């Protein structure tokens, strides 16, 4: 009967481990949104593939496109806002 206790503890441990990626995902979403009140804002992130992303960031009143890959960052250009 004691092996049932071990199985129950193992099940709880596996449930805890399986919830960690979900918690990390929501923490990342909240931390990106909470950082938008500062001078540098990440407006949008678009994944290109599993190793590359395009970031639209705002610094002051200017918007920039930045490429992010496993090799580093690349400046892609500035976005000119026609409404300004």
Structural description of this entry:
It is elongated, with a radius of gyration of 21 Å. The termini are far apart. The chain is α+β, with helices and mostly antiparallel strands and 84 residues long. The model has no long low-confidence stretch (mean pLDDT 84). Helix content is 39%, strand content 40%. The relative contact order is 0.10. It has two domains: 1-37; 39-84. The chain has one helix and four strands; from the N terminus they run H-E-E-E-E. The chain has a four-stranded antiparallel beta sheet, with no helix packed on it.
Distance between the termini: 73 Å
* Sheet having the most strands: 4 strands, antiparallel
Structural class: alpha+beta
What is the string of helix and strand elements? HEEEE
Strand content: 35-45%
Radius of gyration: 21 Å
Helix content: 25-40%
Estimate nothing, just give the exact number of structural domains: 2
From the spread of the alpha carbons, the general shape counts as: elongated
Give start-end ranges of low-pLDDT stretches.
none
Query: How would you state the average pLDDT, rounded?
Result: 84
Number of DSSP strand runs: 4
Strand order of the largest sheet: 1-2-3-4
**In DSSP terms, counting alpha (H) and pi (I) runs of 4 or more, how many helices?**
1
């Amino acid at each position: 009967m004691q092996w049932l206790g071990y199985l129950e503890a193992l099940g709880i441990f596996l449930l805890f481990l399986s919830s960690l990626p979900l918690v990390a995902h929501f923490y990342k979403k909240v931390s990106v949104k909470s950082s938008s009140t500062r001078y540098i804002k990440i407006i949008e992130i678009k994944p290109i593939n599993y190793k590359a992303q395009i970031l639209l960031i705002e610094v002051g009143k200017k918007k920039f496109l930045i490429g992010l890959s496993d090799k580093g960052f690349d400046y892609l250009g500035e976005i000119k806002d026609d409404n300004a």
